[in-house]
Amino acid sequence: xxxxxxxxxxxxxxxxxxxxxxxxxxxxxxxxxxxxxxxxxxxxxxxxxxxxxxxxxxxxxxxxxxxxxxxxxxxxxxxxxxxxxxxxxxxxxxxxxxxxxxxxxxxxxxxxxxxxxxxxxxxxxxxxxxxxxxxxxxxxxxxxxxxxxxxxxxxxxxxxxxxxxxxxxxxxxxxxxxxxxxxxxxxxxxxxxxxxxxxxxxxxxxxxxxxxxxxxxxxxxxxxxxxxxxxxxxxxxxxxxxxxxxxxxxxxxxxxxxxxxxxxxxxxxxxxxxxxxxxxxxxxxxxxxxxxxxxxxxxxxxxxxxxxxxxxxxxxxxxxxxxxxxxxxxxxxxxxxxxxxxxxxxxxxxxxxxxxxxxxxxxxxxxxxxxxxxxxxxxxxxxxxxxxxxxxxxx
Length: 395
Fold this sequence. Notes:
Elements: E1 22-23, H1 32-41, H2 51-54, H3 59-78, H4 96-99, E2 102-106, E3 112-115, E4 121-124, E5 129-136, H5 140-151, E6 158-161, H6 184-205, E7 209-213, H7 223-231, H8 236-249, E8 259-264, H9 280-289, E9 294-298, H10 302-305, E10 319-325, H11 335-345, E11 354-358, H12 373-391
Parallel strand pairs: 1-11, 6-7, 7-8, 8-9, 9-10, 10-11
Antiparallel strand pairs: 2-5, 3-4
Helix pairs in contact: 1-3, 5-6
């Protein structure tokens, strides 16, 4: 299946396949030192930098973050990844490139249910609640970008919530958000304006790969969530239209030299997920109406997520990252099994439009998934090796 006869690169060589073929989605397990430093500053259940936490001295925490980010960038390069991240070590939650940038939030009071392979239901505090009109007070992705630029010449990406993240029907809180916003559309319009500014700030600082996480389409795939949406007197078809519009809007007028990626997440907290269901109902519109350079899809469990046949809707152009290396399961996949999965997927889309990635980040929430750091790094090395076998290497 390989498209290149290149020999594997030596460890430490900065491989830069273009387009990228081997990626981690974003977050990495936070080392114990980092978790301890976070506990000294943040309140239990922290998911966003609230007003009272901005007054605290973060000097020690930032120093620990800096040191650990330098190390983790080097290790990702050695693992053979084409694009690296800072592990989202400066965040308590994967969407904090937005939530840490604004005032007008309160801690969540509505835990979100997650499900795991043991049949258990876990609850996580979830993102902070918008409780008054938002005001931009920072741009944390600029700090992330500038530090990564100073640390490596290897391609790196900065992550933001997807535009349609804010079209989730659960962010509008009657009696709370309606005190400052006329309706849900007014809220989303204001949020998107701030959101676009934050993305533009990161691009101006030098970010050239921007990944947008957790578009809300997954709630349209899961019958339990669909039932809840309908119980809120919302039409899923109209909601789908608004989600597409939001994901188009967030990348409108993006500079030509910036690559934009969309990661279809299904929830990721302590090895648990939020939604199930095949991609089939949304695939055709998502792949054809959203002008992203790459789509990264969670596809490590076809029984829960559907088979690869939705790839038949992908037009010429975008790269589809198959998220087939699990960040939830501590068992390390067999390399030959992953190659077999690519054979299955290539029946629907040529391998020249495919890539390999982890299914999600390893720690979308600060506690991280239920596996250890050694396993994490072995899985990332596996991603690199599979890419080498299929597309060869470059340096």
